[in-house]
Amino acid sequence: MPLCVGVSFKRVAKSFWFDPGGINLRDNDRVVVETTRGAELGIVKVSARDIREDEIQAPLKRVLRLATDEDLEQERQNRDRAKSALITCQEQVRSLELAMKLLQAEYSFDETQVTIYFTAECRVDFRQLVRNVAASLQCKVQLHQVAARDQAKMIGGVGPCGLTLCCATFLTEFAPISMKMAKDQSLFLNPVKFSGVCGKLMCCLRYEHENYVEAKTRMPQIGELVMSPAGQGKVLDLDLLKECALVQLIDKGEELTFPASELKIERTAKCSDCRGCSLDDLRTDAAEAATPDSVQNVVDDGSAINQASVEFDQEDFDADI
User: Fold this and answer.
1) What Å distances lie between residue 226 and 253, 273, 276, CA to CA?
2) d(CA 162, CA 169)
3) What are the strands, taking DSSP E only, across the chain?
4) Do residues 57 and 87 share a domain?
5) Residue in 153, 109, 145 with CA at minimum distance from that of residue 14
6) Which of 115, 109, 106 is nearest to 70 (CA)?
7) Beta bridge partners of 62
8) How far is residue 203's CA from residue 163's CA, in Å, rounded to a whole number?
9) Cα 278 to Cα 83, 219, 228, distances in angstroms
10) pLDDT in tens, the chain (321 residues)
């Protein structure tokens, strides 16, 4: 197994494996690495370790050197140039009256290419925009259209919980989120209630989803008849976090809360044995026999970059969109 280090090129982004090349590297070291786009400046996120061959994207590139003061100064200058490039591109967008919103610009480390990220409601013909910007900046220009989640990740902000957005803090990639996850967690089936600032379903719906699903297997369903320590009753509500059920007693009409472990599902009249069984004994494939969910299982796949992109070389003005 080859020795590799994980290097990331943005503050919150996926790490890629590189050959350390005999250099003693530690976490958070700034390094210059070899990539398909040439030399790039990154930061070590994962210290050197042996990695299986199937986890490495071939060919394995190497770390060229630890970043010097000159490299860090070059990065600072690139950030300043990227701000100017974004202003230049914005002026051209207004001039051409294009329906697009620019988000961010970044230069490659060797300053030969600038990448500009944008969002748009529909497909945009930006061939003339690329020509104008490339002629003004005198370098290769690449435009990337990003989805709503990537927009929130780039801009940042505060979520409904009052904390900084997860995508801008620690999420390195987006996982699919569905309405079924909200239903499994007994949330109101109104997407507005659990949508993030990006307008998509909140990423945090996925964090504890498996725990809720597992808890449901140990609890009765709403509407089931159960035998509680206080007598027979009907389940009115569930508290999945505490694994408790609100039961309405049939004889007294009282509503009491019991731990799920103290409840036994009542067998139906078709059963010859009416003594009652534990929840684990009676939990079968009831979910498959139930009626289909009325809520559409909408999946937000959180696709990252690039619904539309174009690469433009100043020497070739015939950009292919």
Assistant:
1) 14, 15, 9
2) 13
3) 3-8, 16-18, 30-35, 38-50, 63-66, 101-107, 113-119, 140-145, 177-178, 225-228, 231-239, 244-249, 255-259, 264-265, 277-278, 299-300, 309-312
4) no
5) 153
6) 109
7) 19
8) 13
9) 65, 10, 11
10) 788 989 998 878 888 899 888 888 988 899 999 888 888 999 999 888 888 888 887 788 889 999 999 999 999 999 999 999 999 999 999 999 999 999 999 999 988 899 999 999 888 888 999 999 999 999 999 999 999 999 999 988 998 888 999 999 888 888 899 888 988 887 877 778 888 899 899 999 999 899 888 888 888 888 889 998 888 899 998 888 888 999 999 888 888 899 988 888 875 433 334 444 444 443 443 334 333 443 344 445 544 433 333 343 434 433 333
Domain containing 130 equals 73-146+305-312
On whether the CB atoms of residues 21 and 72 are closer than 8 A, the answer is no
The total number of structural domains in the chain stands at 3
Last residue of some domain: 33, 49, 67? 67
Q: Are 89 and 126 in contact (CB under 8 A)?
A: no
